[in-house]
Design a protein that fits this description.
single chain, alpha+beta
């Protein structure tokens, strides 16, 4: 999970990109980078940490140009601790390309061997973004027939990238002298939205970003989502052309975007994230009533913030009082995207505090968006009991996470997943809860896809173990578990 943005404007874009990255900060806090294109020259600044602390006035002055892109990262491949693996990545030929990418490639071993043995390209990191950049650069180089580059050659190169690359990728690139290129994998697993507005000088300004909230905050009209397999080329003077570059496509967006990852004020693939979370609460309430018809529940409480819409609906549907029992410290990072289990566990009590006045002597139903490793959930149950809760029922708006997520979320090992190979009763005992209720996969699909015609299927491999992109088999999963750390 990363956040990306690209902007083409008649005006300097450095401040716009910075502001956009602040809005996408929830998608990654390990590192950040901005690159701009000024004529034929690139300028780039990248650093570890969050956006607000990474850039100085001198950096912004350096980032001149009317075309640019930005990135916020949390590591799913490579190392979060190595600054050289922060995006964007740059390659000098052909013409000069800078690229950012949200997602995760699943055939990195094959691509690494091809790039070295066939394409004769050197890789300096373990990042799959550097792999993707070099595949694109190689295909562009192979397709050049004259002195200059044209859109047919660019779209042809993207088509060959689709043929070579497997997995998930929403990508934005700058090509020196030619402008901005954006493209999305043939399944549209990771989001990418296109927007336009009229500049003060009357020209078109374009933006592509991971979430629609970036467009709305900047006063852009949401044109549409970038289609699966589609490539969009925008010249520095604002001319936009697009082309479907994949032979077979199907829109299958990641379910976790709607459950947890995206901000609630975003709309992805025509589905409002906030509305989806409300509906998840509606359906979860049905499951709670079915599994625990005689349960004594005094209050429903959310784990702030992403579980709040679902918890509100659970309380309404069950006719039980809704209360806010946990106070969130907003100046600590999200535990889910912090590298290392020990850091996650230590930060839970820094992030949340249970208010005894809301818990003492009550039978409490706690609603969270999902349960992944169980570390946070276990700490929360302990906090509720320490605050005086009489009993604790825990409910998850998402189904049990039973398999690794290989398309851009940091869930590499089955051994880390608390639900892998276990029943709800066993998990409840591990968490210290009196009862545990999970959303069903059917219920999740019914809630998120309600009334949809464009999206009929979700990428839900972490809940089902069924993978739609790449040759993800038992050997591959074993390799991921052996080589990638959480």
């Amino acid at each position: 999970m990363c956040g990306i943005v690209g902007i083409v404007s008649p005006e300097p874009v450095n401040q716009q990109i910075y502001d956009s990255l602040l809005l996408l900060q929830h998608r990654g806090q390990d590192s950040t980078g901005i690159a701009t294109l000024d004529g034929d020259f690139f300028h780039m600044v990248k650093a570890k940490g969050q956006v607000r602390e990474a850039y100085r006035t001198r950096d912004m002055r350096q980032l001149t140009g009317n075309v640019g892109l930005g990135h916020v990262r949390y590591a799913t491949r490579g190392s979060a601790a190595q600054e050289e693996e922060a995006q964007p990545f740059y390659v000098g030929a052909p013409y000069g390309i800078i690229l950012v990418h949200n997602g995760n490639l699943t055939n990195t071993r094959e691509l690494t061997a091809e790039l070295y043995n066939v394409d004769r390209r050197h890789l300096n990191t373990h990042s799959d973004t550097e792999l993707l950049l070099n595949v694109l650069a190689n295909e562009l180089q192979a397709g050049i027939t004259g002195l200059s580059l044209d859109e047919e050659q660019v779209f042809g190169a993207v088509a060959r990238v689709h043929e070579r690359v497997e997995g998930s990728y929403a990508t934005i690139a700058l090509i020196a002298g030619y402008g901005l290129l954006a493209f999305r994998d043939p399944f549209g697993i990771r989001p990418l939205v296109l927007g336009r507005r009229t500049s003060a000088t009357g020209g078109d300004e374009w933006v592509v970003a991971s979430e629609s909230l970036v467009l709305e905050s900047g006063g852009y009209e949401v044109v549409r989502d970038v289609d699966p397999g589609e490539a969009i080329l925008i010249t520095p003077d604002g001319k936009m052309t697009s082309r479907q570059c994949a032979k077979e496509t199907k829109l299958v967006p990641c379910a976790f975007e709607y459950i947890y990852l995206a901000r609630p004020d975003s709309v992805l693939s025509g589905i409002a994230v906030y509305d989806a979370r409300l509906r998840l609460g509606d359906v979860l309430a049905e499951q709670i009533r079915k599994e625990l018809p005689d349960a004594e529940i005094d209050v429903v409480m959310p784990i702030p913030d992403s579980a709040r819409p679902s918890a509100m609906q659970v309380a309404q549907r069950l006719g039980i009082e809704y209360r806010e029992g946990f106070f969130k410290n907003r100046y600590i990072g999200r535990t889910f995207i912090m590298p290392g289990q020990a850091v996650r566990k230590r930060s839970v009590r820094q992030k949340l505090n249970a208010m005894s006045v809301e818990f003492k002597g009550k039978n409490v139903l706690i609603v969270d968006d999902s349960i992944v490793r169980g570390t946070t959930s276990r700490e929360i149950v302990e906090m509720a009991r320490a605050a005086g809760a009489k009993s604790v029922i825990f409910a998850s708006a998402a189904p049990p996470v039973v398999s690794p997520h290989v398309y851009g979320i940091n869930m590499p090992s089955r051994n880390e997943l608390i639900a892998h190979g276990r029943t709800a009763a066993e998990i409840a005992a591990d968490l210290g809860a009196d009862h545990l209720v999970y959303q069903t996969v059917e219920g999740m699909n019914r809630a998120i896809l309600a009334g949809q015609t464009e999206v009929t299927e979700l990428e839900e491999s972490c809940f089902t173990g069924e993978y739609i992109a790449g040759n993800v088999d038992e050997e591959y999963l074993a390799w991921v578990e052996a080589t990638q750390e959480s």
